[in-house]
Design brief:
The structure holds 2 protein chains of 2 kinds.
Chain A lengths: L5 E10 L2 E11 L4 E5 L6 H9 L6 E6 L2 E2 L5 H6 L2 E3 L12 H12 L14 H13 L15 H14 L4 E5 L10 H12 L5 E5 L3 H7 L2 E6 L2 E6 L1 H6 L1 H8 L3 H4 L1
Parallel strand pairs in A: 3-8, 3-9, 6-7, 7-8
Antiparallel strand pairs in A: 1-2, 1-4, 4-5, 9-10
Helix pairs in contact in A: 3-4, 3-5, 4-5
Chain B lengths: L8 H26 L1 H4 L3 H27 L6 H19 L3 H26 L4 H21 L1 H4 L5 E2 L22 E2 L2 E2 L2 H25 L1 H11 L1 H6 L4 H27 L1 E2 L1 H5 L1 H14 L5 H27 L6 H4 L5 H15 L4 H6 L6
Antiparallel strand pairs in B: 1-4, 2-3
The chains are: A alpha/beta, B mainly alpha.
The complex binds adenosine-5'-triphosphate and magnesium ion (MG).
């Protein structure tokens, strides 16, 4: 069997006395879309932070394929093909929308250190950046500073940056949260588009149960930092434990 | 794609006229500086013009750090001083030749870059405030060293030396048919003019280099680091390396400005390059011009330098003109010029909170 494209082993992080992620072991395969669910504060985002390198684990290891990446910095992990969109919008507010995406494109091409050429003269960078803006329906606001964008557009830009990095592993953290009903399908279509490429691995944190049902190949449930269920969508959703956890959740999620 | 269609109308128009005013000012300053030897031939004005040229470079290179990347450093005069002292010492020891300027200058730039790399790699990964403290300490150590090694540096007195012959006032840059020095509009085309244009074109080249840097892909990465360091890292940029790189580049450019200063003044001492007063001037110029604008350096350096040199004269005139009125001449006494300079600064900051260029242009949102 080929190694899992991403594997975490006994991943643990403690903040003071609080264990936010508690000895989670899990493997993710290429061509698979795993939805991670769990109530607020379950440790989903923290788990992502550990995988993409924003946080260092207190214990445990992270492997991408055969390679142990536990010691790599966030930038090295991005270069190694681990891409991440953030739950809380995390952009460059004073730069234009196009510049934001261009930053991701030029990072992907390794052109960051280019110093004696005008960025605007790189037609390739610009065209590629525009293609991601078109995909996320943002081409019309390309010249605007990010700070002038609506919340929904900022969320879309967050996704555009992730697409532009062309990672092997896509991590979406509640990508449609705060989007209007007509904006969300654009994002879900994009995710469907990515999963057609069977070499890609997708991790998706999502609360909305209809979205979970329609997209998931597999569901992982986190609760109080621990992995409490992992399996096919129908099996996991039917588990009494999961129903119990979700009882206290807002209506839309409990559906 | 029309880049203005998406902006609210009023803001666009305001931004556009503001931008026109800013570019108009810069155009006027550029013309004045280019023709300075003809327009303002007196010695004092020449000093001011050369100082403006050099400070534009110094301030713009500092803006690469503070305005573009968000790095606060107090060591900029250290690099300026290294460039100037290395050139000065070489000219003193080796005699007034181009070889001394080149070797001394190269040494000054080289040492600056090494030092910047060392300070950068050791401390740019820690908190900004700690980095600022380290640069302050380094700058103080350098100032102490300069006064201690007085055999080389002349201590507090500094060093006086000769510069390459082409810059000496006796040199005939252009000659008329009689073999005498050519005069253009009553101004002698002599070595002093050559020295000015050495400073002018040296500064111009350095300035264009910096314009190139901020427009490059690297320039955008620097702004990204200023805006959101953690996200820049998440995109795959090694923030520490980029910070260190721009710190080294800014140091090299400041050292080059030091070379120009050393050649122009024929004297290098703590007061002309290393003093903390200069560091404060640089900071004020950046703030007046507008951080993160590049063009702000031109306006900031000009406004400050002109005020520093001419406010006293202006006040002398004003206090004489108002001699009959009680109290007013007292207030306008030239000895109080620092008070008025401070007032001017407060007014500028009040009316132009983002600096003159920053406020006028509202930073164009180019794609
Ligand atoms: N940097 C931190 N320092 C201290 N505690 C933290 C930190 N980051 C997260 N936590 C805690 O860890 C727990 C898990 O938080 P996390 O953001 O991972 O939850 P989540 O599953 O993403 O929840 P949500 O659905 O609300 O996004 C929370 O109790 C949170 O308060
Ligand atoms: Mg979360």
């Amino acid at each position: 069997m080929t190694p899992a494209s991403l594997r975490i082993e006994d991943l643990t992080i403690r903040f003071g006395g609080h264990t936010a992620v508690d000895a989670v072991t899990c493997a993710f395969q290429a061509g698979e879309l795993t939805v991670i669910v769990g109530p607020n504060g379950a440790g989903k985002t923290t788990c992502f932070n550990l995988i993409s390198g924003q946080l260092r684990p207190s214990a445990g290891r992270i492997f991408k394929g055969d390679r142990d990446i536990t010691g790599l910095s966030a930038s090295a992990r991005a270069k190694a093909g681990i891409g991440r969109a953030f739950q809380l919008t995390n952009l460059f507010p004073q730069l234009s929308v196009l510049e934001n995406v261009r930053l991701a494109v030029q990072a992907q091409h390794g052109l960051g250190p280019v110093i004696f050429r005008r960025a605007r003269s790189f037609g390739k960078l610009r065209d590629e950046a525009y293609s991601f803006l078109e995909a996320t329906r943002l081409a019309g606001v390309a010249a605007q500073p990010v700070s002038a964008l609506s919340h929904g557009d900022q969320r879309k830009l967050e996704i555009a940056l992730l697409l532009a990095l062309k990672p092997d592993i896509f991590m979406f953290d509640e990508p449609t949260a705060g989007m209007s009903v007509d904006e969300a399908p654009v994002i879900l279509e994009l995710i469907e588009e990515i999963r057609k490429d069977k070499a890609k691995t997708i991790l998706l944190v999502e609360h909305k149960m209809d979205v979970v049902r329609s997209l998931a190949d597999r569901i992982v449930v986190l609760h109080n930092g621990a992995l409490v269920a992992d399996g096919l969508p129908n099996e996991v959703i039917a588990l009494p434990l999961v129903r119990e956890i979700y009882l206290g959740m807002p209506e839309e999620s409990a559906a | 794609m029309n880049q203005t269609t998406n902006e609210p109308q009023g803001q666009t128009r305001g931004g556009r006229t503001g931008r026109l005013i800013a570019y108009g000012l810069i155009g006027i300053i550029a013309i004045c500086l280019f023709f300075a030897p003809l327009l303002f031939p007196d010695v004092r004005s020449q000093e001011v013009a050369a100082r403006i040229c050099i400070f534009i470079v110094l301030v713009a290179s500092y803006d690469l750090l503070i305005g573009y990347t968000g790095i606060v450093s107090f060591a900029h005069t250290m690099f300026f001083g290294l460039g100037a002292y290395a050139t000065a010492i070489a000219l003193k020891q080796m005699g007034p030749g181009w070889d001394a300027v080149i070797i001394g200058g190269a040494l000054g730039v080289g040492v600056s870059v090494l030092l910047a790399a060392l300070v950068g790699l050791l401390s740019l990964r820690v908190k900004a405030i700690f980095f600022a403290m380290v640069t302050l300490a380094a700058a103080s150590v350098m100032a102490v060293l300069a006064s201690q090694f007085s055999d080389f540096t002349g201590g507090e007195d500094g060093i006086i030396y000769k510069v390459p012959k082409i810059f000496s006032p006796a040199t005939k840059l252009l000659t008329d048919e009689n073999g005498k020095v050519l005069t253009i509009f009553g101004v002698k085309a002599n070595g002093k003019m050559a020295a000015y244009y050495f400073v002018f074109f040296g500064s111009l080249i350095l300035y264009f280099l910096m314009l190139r840097i901020v427009a490059s892909p690297l320039g955008t990465v620097l702004e990204a680091i200023r805006e959101n360091e953690m996200r820049a890292e998440a995109l795959g940029y090694k923030v520490v390396l980029y910070r260190t790189a721009i710190f080294c580049i800014a140091a090299a450019i400041a050292a080059c400005a030091g070379i120009l200063r050393a050649v122009w003044l024929k004297y290098t001492g703590p007061e002309t390059t290393l003093s903390f007063a200069i560091m404060i001037d640089i900071l004020l110029m950046v703030v007046i011009g507008g951080m993160g604008t590049m063009t702000g350096a031109i306006i900031g350096a000009t406004v400050m330098s002109v005020a520093q040199f001419y406010l006293k004269d202006l006040m002398q005139l004003a206090s004489e003109a108002t001699a009959g009125i009680p109290l007013v001449p007292d207030l306008l006494d030239p000895d109080r010029w620092l008070l008025w300079l401070g007032l001017l600064f407060i007014l500028l900051v009040y009316f132009f909170p983002a600096g003159i260029v920053g406020t006028l242009a509202r930073k164009g949102h180019h794609p």
